[in-house]
Design goal:
CATH class of the largest domain: Alpha Beta
Radius of gyration: 24 Å
Strand content: 15-25%
Number of strands: 24
Helix content: 25-40%
Number of helices: 17
Distance between the termini: 58 Å
Largest sheet: 6 strands, mixed
Number of domains: 3
Structural class: alpha/beta
Amino acid sequence: MKIEQIYTGCLAQGAYYIESEGEAAIVDPLRETGPYLRRAHESGADIKYIFETHFHADFVSGHVTLSKETGAPIVYGPLANPSFEAIIAEDQQEFVLGKIRIRALHTPGHTMESTTYLLIDENGKDHAIFSGDTLFLGDVGRPDLAQKAADMTQEQLAGMLFDSLRSKIMPLADDVIVYPAHGAGSACGKNMMKETVDTLGNQKKMNYALRADMTREEFIREVTEGLLPPPKYFPANVKLNREGYEDLGEILERGTRALSPEAFEARANETAAVILDVRHQDEFVKGHIPRSIFIGLKGDFAPWVGALIADVKQPILLVTPAGNEEETVTRLSRVGFDNTLGYLEGGFESWIASGKETDSLESEAPEEISEILAKKENQVFDVRKESEFAAEHLEDAVNTPLSVLNDHLAEFPSDKPFYVYCAGGYRSVIAASILKSRGIHNLVDIAGGFTAMKKACLPTTDFVCPSTRQS
């Protein structure tokens, strides 16, 4: 028996390859199916089943394509209602894979169809669970995403999740291995651990939601409090996962068309496409196409695209580092952004060579503007998460998290300079690019973000510069 976790860091997502006696199963595959096909080919195995724990909201699964390519059926748990052919398993139904069995445990709460798959080894021993978004390491799935579809409140769904955990998962042995669908960084939970595999016994000790003495009311309160609004692209991804989607090969063919600067500009004007620049933030700061949006590939690229470009059908044109065109289109497609129309051939350098208009972003190191900031004459905006801001921040800074920036554009001054910072410089450049695309140019990015400000010993709350700290 083999179990392999195939983890994608930028989505904090875990897919799984399971194999026994030449038969393989895939749990929660990503949209690009190549890694699973290659893995099965390496072992000389045939993919027999494709298990989906639920209709994912934060990424587009590869289940439909993988089923077409292999002939393997897609398996969902009870209450799933896909538009394509699939096995809708009954609670406790088992599927034979070589010498092992996989049992469907219906665990509603995150969504109504949410199902945990229990792997029973060749000796009949419970070995592992593939818990999807029902149980994470350190947390459980948020119960507010499926309210509309289920015609229930988040409190009612949280109550169902409480029952699912205590009737289906917590009675399992402590040595059962937990393989969740997501890790730290995912928007599907609040407080996930950085580890991606653990034992159920340790989770019973570490996970607040699995406290043995926890009442139903306590669980509902703790699971629902502090939930941030989900990214706006989540419903669109659920729809794609439930109804099916365009083949990735066709999306890649369309999205990786090389366009000359003239053709690129014409295409942008004809389609009202967003020009998405995915280079490093330092390159964007130095020069970029006017009104283009920066979201760099080196950060949490796909989730930020989903959070900030709400419409997955939005036409997109790309400015990429050379050789990263296919990767960019693929990563966009993982979150349902399939309408990429091509990329700028020769990159930003070709745009400059063509003599077309360019723009840049004013960015200053903290030590260069410390005196200006000390006068407190200009507003400073912190675009980090609320939790980061609460821990420590520049004195008198205003917290405007990047995830909700588009809802607060009117709050930025238009008549005098203001400053923007994040933790290290990635998110603040994204924010600055969005503001500039909306005609707000009187801003300065604080290079290096809060990390650099602490090193420069600028006045912050809950932080004392080493040179002034009292014993």
